[in-house]
Amino acid sequence: MAGKPRRGGNRRPNRKNAGGQGRRFKKKPEDDREDKAVEIEGTIKTVLAGTMFKVELPGGHEVLAHISGKMRKRFIRLVVGDRVRMEMSPYDTTKARITFRIG
């Protein structure tokens, strides 16, 4: 029996796509998420190696920031003195991701 080819009649249907019920629970909308990133603006103070930057916030604090993937893809250049928009996690306020160059 081990050498016999199987016929398709006894196969179970794909459970993931059966009846269009791929997910068990509905996903939360992004607006309801408590851990949503905080958007802030700052000024680049120091350019570091590996596309990392020290950015000063309006309150005087400094954060370590890196460039987002879209900015790397488009070869957006950042220099000291540029104003930037960043996303920061509410859990770690010492690091951020630069998402937009204001000028």
Short description:
With 103 residues, the chain is mainly β. The chain has one helix and five strands, in the order βββαββ. The chain is elongated and about 75 Å long.
Write down the CATH class of one domain. Mainly Beta
Order of helices and strands: EEEHEE
Query: Proportion of β residues?
Result: 25-35%
Q: Give the distance, in angstroms, between the N- and C-terminal Cα atoms.
A: 73 Å
Radius of gyration: 24 Å
CATH superfamily of one domain: Nucleic acid-binding proteins
Give the % helix: under 10%
| Second rung of CATH, namely the architecture of one domain | Beta Barrel
Total DSSP E strands: 5
Structural class: mainly beta
Mean pLDDT: 84
Description:
This protein is mainly beta and 103 residues long. The chain has a domain at 32-101: Nucleic acid-binding proteins (OB fold (Dihydrolipoamide Acetyltransferase, E2P), Beta Barrel), CATH 2.40.50.140. It is built from one helix and five strands. Strands 1-2-3-5-4 form a five-stranded mixed β-barrel. The protein is elongated, with a radius of gyration of 24 Å. It starts with 37 loop residues before the first strand and ends with a strand. The model has no long low-confidence stretch (mean pLDDT 84). It is found in: Cytoplasm. Residues 1-37 are annotated as: Disordered. Residues 1-15 have a biased composition (Basic residues). Belongs to the IF-1 family. Residues 28-37 have a biased composition (Basic and acidic residues).
